[in-house]
Write the structure tokens for this entry.
Amino acid sequence: MNTLDDLLSVNRRHFFSRSATGIGGLALSSLLAQGEDRIPEGLANIAPKAKRIIYLFQSGGPAQQDLFDHKPLLREKNGENLPNSVRGNQRLTGMSSNQTSIPLAGSHFDFGRYGKSGQELSELLPYHREIADDICIVRNMYTEAINHDPAITYFQTGSQIAGRPSFGAWLSYGLGSLNENLPSFIVLVSANQGGQPLYSRLWGSGFLDSRHQGVQFRSGNDPVLYLSNPDGVCHSRRRAVLDKINSLNEHSYRKELDPEIQSRIAQYEMAYRMQSSVPEVTEIADEPDSVFEMYGEDSRKPGTYAANCLLARRLAERGTRFIQLYHQGWDHHSNLPKGIRGQAKEVDQASAALIKDLKQRGMLDDTLVIWGGEFGRTSYSQGSLTKTNYGRDHHPRCFSIWMAGGGIQPGITVGKTDPYGYNIINPTQSPNEIYNPTKHHVSDHAIHVHDLQATILNLMGMDHQTLTYKYQGRHFRLTDVHGHVVKQLLA
């Protein structure tokens, strides 16, 4: 049953729909208004440091011990069992809970310190050395989700249960668009990666208006499905058909008073404008050779991670508010040394190039870039451990991501894990003092999924506690009922 507020809102819309402009005119004016860099009433209490976000999501859970969190002790104790005092009563997944032993697996890859800041990075990320002073490495992330689907859903929607609005949808709802000719939320998925499946609900609008859902751009002749006119249909004919459809939708709205009909009109209009804007933005062949050289040869191949990073920069230039990249294949339960080497090679150069490209164009200061997955990997080997091979199971207790630009403090490493890489510890704790999870709890030194989301919204000029939407009698928000801004990350 609709609340009184809902009924009053519909009645107001009904009144305006009968005015001289009509619903079509109102929809158009609403779309034009979205071109403003606006902050809704009640959310304008924070000065935004970022205008847009590029989220490089690494699906599958990259192994932090092999990329960003150097643990020499794992090499020293390679093959020894993980001490009970370190694990405590923390759960294991069903994939390794029946192992007779859980032997520690030292990384096969060397680490070094780079940049003036001395950021510690794996040999697997040679191009990251060039942006060491631009990124903030966060080693103290944690989550409650231990399996892929709820863990990815948690990061993307703020809930482990499917159905909530995605991060980009919340931003579209709260801030609108910077460009009336492109969606405010665009999704790019690396082609032919395999790995854990991705679902369109990860970029859905949930209970928000459907115009806020992410629009997936694909590689190929038609970046957006069903956007191009069929053979024999010209733009003028398409415009005439669209006008007739809008007229029918207007009639339907006056009869039904369903707000989604307004969204349908707005989306038809957006699709019409995208027939011109999408080919222009996706035609990356007009980029100079120097740009392709910076992003790597794969950037010339549509659908690759490198090409999507380049496309993300082009979308950011044109005012897309939230650009979500997904790159699958990080789920290394076995054959990790070979698998992660290939994965790192696919993303290293292009990720670094994106930061350098944004910086040289003067865009990094107001573009927030995030790199990371849904959880980390265990310090012990899943399955057999040999001199040449090991695997790592899911580990939600601690993992690493990095952030850059958009108000993030550059060239620092935030957070610290114990010498075994298994638990988050107080940064002032002695390296020889082993953290005992049976006597301690995750503390203020750890960054929860909701803390990260709250911090990102803060950088975009929004208070995560006031960006809400009333649905089924309850006010929902991205961070649900907790989360705090991590000031240590802010410049």
In short: Residues 1-41, 437-441 have pLDDT under 50 and may be disordered. The chain has two domains: 1-33+231-292, 52-219+302-489. The radius of gyration is 24 Å.
